[in-house]
């Protein structure tokens, strides 16, 4: 007898969101003809298809709390996924992590070439900010400006890029980082973008500051738990399971909370962060149930 079980609500919602985000990305980045065609092909290869779409899903669910139009939320979700994809393309380069596999397929510099990968990453970052700035994303220019400002802060020198620099410096440091230093590194490198993704729906919905702050706090704790879960997967899962090379943190001698705390204590820390994240959603009631489920999924996932 065929299996007719209905997927859990979160899994269905994630799959639906991923399909909608990919459709939106396809519209924002249509295939091109002429000399620019290889660049657009590399951009589309990097961002369309595959990936958990966790950041985009956070935007959609945050926006749903305030009745924001799905089209507006999808454009912001697509912008964040383009920004995230740019960071992965550059992280995978030989000058950075030198990875050959991402989302179960060759990395962009392997599928195309190194120069094309650099340019494609640059162009994805530009497209992300351009998408946020367009009137189609929101009719209020103040909202669009706030989205651009907050994404720039999350992605820049005191956010994702700063965290990547700290990560590189840590590899060459004479002394290993302590728990506080590793926590800050991961907050910047991974957490800031997830925090913005959680907060973006409240910005779109012009939410009261208390609710906006609650979603941002949820995103901070979720991001920290997500990074610990990623470290655990890197240490315990196979490349076939994760779609990317595993064991690379230990191989490179990278500083992680897992390395400092050990597997069991790291798991306990992630569980505490998930509980904190869920607690931030109390004021949203039942309509935030998918966000609560997402927090638990963050540390239960296998890829």
> Which regions are unreliable across 5 or more consecutive residues at pLDDT < 50?
none
**Strand-residue fraction?**
under 5%
What fold name stands as the CATH topology? Farnesyl Diphosphate Synthase
Number of domains: 1
Overall body shape: globular
What is the level 1 CATH name?
Mainly Alpha
What can be said about the biggest beta sheet?
2 strands, antiparallel
Helical coverage, percent range: over 70%
Gyration radius, rounded:
19 Å
Overall pLDDT metric: 91
Structural class: mainly alpha
User: Could you state the CATH homologous superfamily?
Assistant: Farnesyl Diphosphate Synthase
Task: Give the helix tally.
Answer: 15
The order of strands across the largest sheet is: 1-2
The quaternary state of the protein chains shown equals: single chain
Give a verbal description of the structure.
- This protein has 303 residues and is an all-alpha fold.
- The chain has one domain (12-300): Farnesyl Diphosphate Synthase, CATH 1.10.600.10.
- The chain has 15 helices and two strands.
- A two-stranded antiparallel ribbon has the order 1-2.
- Strand 1 (101-102) and strand 2 (105-106) form a beta hairpin.
- Helix 2 crosses helix 6 (114-133).
- The chain is globular.
What does this entry show, briefly?
By secondary structure, the chain is mainly α.
Question: What is the topological layout?
Answer:
Blueprint: H1 9-28, H2 37-47, H3 54-64, H4 70-91, E1 101-102, E2 105-106, H5 108-111, H6 114-133, H7 141-155, H8 160-172, H9 179-204, H10 209-236, H11 239-242, H12 248-252, H13 257-261, H14 263-279, H15 289-300
Antiparallel strand pairs: 1-2
């Amino acid at each position: 007898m065929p299996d007719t079980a209905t997927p859990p609500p979160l899994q269905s919602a994630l799959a639906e969101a991923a399909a909608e985000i990919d459709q939106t990305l396809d519209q924002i980045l249509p295939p091109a003809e002429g000399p620019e065609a290889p660049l657009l092909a590399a951009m589309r290869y990097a961002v369309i298809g595959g990936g958990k779409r966790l950041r985009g899903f956070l935007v959609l669910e945050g926006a749903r709390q305030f009745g924001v139009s799905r089209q507006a939320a999808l454009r912001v979700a697509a912008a964040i996924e383009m920004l995230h994809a740019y960071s992965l393309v550059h992280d995978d380069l030989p000058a950075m992590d030198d990875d050959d596999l991402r989302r179960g397929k060759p990395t962009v510099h392997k599928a195309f070439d190194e120069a094309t990968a650099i340019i494609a990453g640059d162009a994805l970052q530009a497209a992300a900010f351009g998408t946020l700035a367009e009137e189609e994303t929101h009719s209020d220019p103040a909202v669009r400006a706030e989205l651009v400002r907050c994404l720039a802060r999350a992605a820049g020198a005191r956010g994702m890029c700063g965290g990547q620099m700290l990560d590189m410096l840590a590899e060459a440091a004479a002394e290993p980082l302590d728990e506080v230093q590793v926590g800050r590194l991961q907050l910047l490198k991974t957490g800031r973008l997830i925090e913005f993704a959680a907060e973006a729906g409240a910005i779109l919905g012009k939410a009261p500051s208390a609710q906006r702050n609650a979603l941002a706090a949820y995103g901070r704790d979720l991001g920290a738990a997500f990074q610990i879960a990623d470290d655990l997967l890197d240490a315990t899962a196979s490349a076939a399971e994760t779609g990317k090379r595993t064991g690379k943190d230990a191989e490179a001698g990278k500083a992680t909370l897992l390395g400092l705390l050990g597997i069991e204590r790291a798991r306990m820390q992630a569980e505490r962060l998930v509980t904190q994240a869920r607690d931030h959603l109390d004021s949203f009631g039942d309509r935030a149930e998918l966000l609560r489920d997402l927090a638990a999924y963050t540390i239960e996932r296998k890829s």
